[in-house]
Write a structure and sequence with these properties.
Layout: E1 7-9, H1 11-14, E2 19-23, E3 29-39, E4 44-47, E5 70-75, E6 87-99, E7 104-112, E8 121-123, E9 129-137, E10 142-147, H2 148-159, E11 178-185, E12 191-196, E13 203-209, E14 215-221, E15 227-232, E16 243-249, E17 254-258, E18 265-271, E19 287-300, E20 307-308, E21 313-319, E22 325-332, E23 337-343, E24 349-355, E25 362-366, E26 379-383, E27 388-396, E28 403-411
Parallel strand pairs: 15-16, 20-22
Antiparallel strand pairs: 1-4, 2-3, 3-4, 5-6, 5-8, 6-7, 7-10, 8-9, 9-10, 11-19, 12-18, 12-19, 13-17, 13-19, 14-15, 14-18, 21-28, 22-27, 23-26, 23-28, 24-25, 24-27
Amino acid sequence: MIEGRYLVTNAHVVWPYDHVRVVFPDGSEHIDAPVIDLDLMVDLAVIGPLETDTDPVDLVDGEELSIGSEVFLVGYPGEVEEYPQPAITRGLISRLRQWESAGMTFFQTDAAVAGGQSGGVLVNNNAEVIGISGLSFSEAAFGLVTSAADVRSRIEGIIVGEDVDGLGQRRLASGGGRRTFTTILGEEEQSRLYVINEPVGTDLRIFVGSRSDEVLAFIASAAVGSVAALLTDPYAFFPEELWGGDTVIVPDGTATVTTTIDSPYFLLLSRFPSEGEPFFSDTANPVRVQVDSNHGLAAYTDPDDGRRITVGETIKANMDFPLDEDQFAIQLEEGDTVSIAVETIAFDALMTVSSSIAGLGDLAVDDDSGGGLFGLNPKLTFSAPYSGRFFIGVSDLNVSDVGGYSLTVSEASPEAAPGR
């Protein structure tokens, strides 16, 4: 907790909630603490202000500490108790790592990070907070801790209402919505997301119908990302490893699902073209979908769907929910060669370049060639085989994480293209 009675934690700890439960080591409890906002680019969240007598701490600059300096991780790793006590782990600063484009420094420490450590702190020998923990590095789970010196200004910006991550408003709807409606899946919006906010134990009965056989529809938990019900699935596209243990498969388009997690659920509708046809086409026919539900479905408009990017441009975007996939349109002339790169610390990004011409499909795919903080950023060089529109797809390889990223398209030498 910092000055002003605000709590600082990781965005992935509180997403997708607007209010959270906060417990202090002395047993004091805040049932409905407000989440002010998230910084989805660097995985920060600010909660509060809280009515508490707990003393705040200062965030200090520890980047001048020598490699090998003793530090301590404080948090709640592996904690399952209702009123937990913090745990402390001793370690050393192994090295500093830089995310240069974001201006962020990370302490790498040999103190291992376990689940539950997220949102904890790294302190020096003087018990001063020098970092916010939340990431781990390599299979050994070495701690990777965001430098407090680099996040102070971002935290202050969140408190005063600034859009510090440059992503605008990305919160899921907290209620309301329609029960019966018709929607159109077309060229600009291939997918539609609807948020369901109901208590645990609620029976959701949803029907999805269309005259087209190109509609994929499923219900999933926003917090977990596992599929609760698969309503329609053209060409058996959906991989079984994404199904939850209790997934309901209902090929007739009607499903009843009981909510088991205190989290928003969502209904995702996606248009999948006929076999051999491109996902995105200048001549694609719109698909009409009818939805009937016994509870309100609040539409969420993904600001990244259908965005356009040009050569020489960098844009910020976001994986808004588990299983999200963003598509960006770019116009190129035959022979144009571009370098395309994604940077993120939030998820393991997969990038594709696809065509709007039938039969061509994905023209380029990359996972980890861009390196980055974890060595997981995609980067590729692409040379346009014809003049026209292409689509850059960005998704999470693990289909479970959310968070911000940057997408950059820059001019490249034709000699850098694969096969040259």
